[in-house]
Fold TRAP transporter substrate-binding protein DctP.
Amino acid sequence: MPGLARRIGAALSVLALTACGLGEGAVEDDGAQVTLRFALYISDQNVYYQEGAEPFKGYVEEHSGGEIAVELYPAEQLGNARDSLAMLRSGIADLAFTIPTYEPELRYSTGWELPLGMDTEQIVEGRWASYHEDGPLAEQYRDAGVVPLVTNTGSPFHVSSTSRPLPDLESVRGLRIRTGSDIHMDLVERLGANAVEGASSEQFEQLDRDIVNGTVFHYGGYRANGLDTLLGHSAPDVPLPPPAQNTFMSQETWEGLSEEHRRIVYEAGRRVSEDSTTASIAESDAELDAFTADGFSEHTWPQEDLDRVDALFADAPEQWAEDLGGDAGGALEQIEQLGARTDGQGPTELEADFESFRFPG
């Protein structure tokens, strides 16, 4: 029932905003030719807001000479995180920070969360490249009526607990671990823990009420969610790929832009994909150092346990493709090929190639 209530609330919000005249796609306002409404479920304190959404807005407005205005709506002001596609299709939002795992139509995108041996930079480079070649990944976006503009790829996620030390694989067994991703839920259960579904915004309450005694999250987000006051132990040697988040524009809005404006929006997306990824990695590294200095315990696992983890995760990609069906096998093959073509060395550098972008106006 709580999930249903959230969806009903989001639907009512959409209806209310539409009644107020805000559900009609990109509109003229304040002397600008076009106003783009950007819906984000994250707060204005999140690294993806400060190093992603705000610079995106600044670049677009500056390079369009004020012909495009971007309005930012953080913290689910326009609707629930699980209703991003609905907001885009209704015209409530023109851009939306989206979690593909919540959207069945974008299911192939979740393949980037699989344990394929890629680091964050390889993932963001591979995801960006997927927008520029034909295949199941780009095709799903076209079928869903959205245009991918930003690859919001952050630092790896890790298992952390409230009070239980995590010196080895056995110590994870029986933990009740919160996670918001289907793939992470599967990986957590392969480690011997009990996976409990919960959005990132819900994890503080779940931990505080002892519904769970562990979580899978990135270190850079601990402080913003109050987790630094509840968590005491972690296993940095066992990284899980971060959720495959995107910023999408509705196809209708994209087609309504001139080619010059599409190029500006495209370039803004490329730049913030790079910069927000770099910022997220730096934030997590700095925060982990700060937490450790305050008494947070990092546990190093023996190599034999790390080898066991690799063995436990080995068939997860193939199982994902089999369970998902459709062309998930083709999507997995494409993801592996894209990852193999990236080097993941040093600062992320995403190639700008508007001409090969698979989303014409």
In short: Confidence is low (pLDDT under 50) at residues 1-23. The CA atoms of residues 29 and 35 lie 6 Å apart. DSSP finds twelve helices and twelve strands in the chain. Residues 158-241+287-324 form a domain with the D-Maltodextrin-Binding Protein; domain 2 fold (CATH 3.40.190.170).
